[in-house]
Fold this sequence. Notes:
- The protein has helices at 2-46, 52-58, 75-78, 81-101, 111-122, 124-137.
- By secondary structure, the chain is mainly alpha-helical.
- It has 2 domains: 1-47; 52-165, no CATH class.
- Helix 5 (111-122) runs antiparallel to helix 6 (124-137).
- The model has no long low-confidence stretch (mean pLDDT 72).
Amino acid sequence: MRKSNAFKSRLFLYCRLVLCVSFFSCSCFWIKVQAQSAGDLELIGSTHFYSAAQERHYKRAGNSNSVLRMRSKSFVAAYNPLSLSMKGAMYLYQHVFTLQLARSCPYEITCSNFAKHAIHDHGIVKGMLLAADRVMRCNRIALLDVPPMNRDEHTGAIKDDLNLYE
């Protein structure tokens, strides 16, 4: 019985020590983060993250955020959790993950914008299937099967209009 009480008291002391150390280290880290945030925000604001070629890639026809805007003024429709999570995931994908992949997208309308328009025009089920099909075709091997008449003469990008899937 005495051994059990001694073990419990040591365990309790150890847990308190771990909590104190973790709280102290987190608070020191938070103070450093708060001290650097003004300078970091100024640096981020003055830095251009996209090159001119990447800017042109995202400014092409069909690459817009107009699909993400709310069509309905209703509070329930505007803050639907499913809609917000889908649009948030698409925004995260476009602004975080595709920074590394955007240069290799051979299509005139990028795959993520194609997915946004497909979901907007055809609904969630058919839109997701069309988007998955498009992403699976977005590689260098699939480029061999594209007929020359489906390419833009000036940019060389593949024209894959959403109207083809009606």
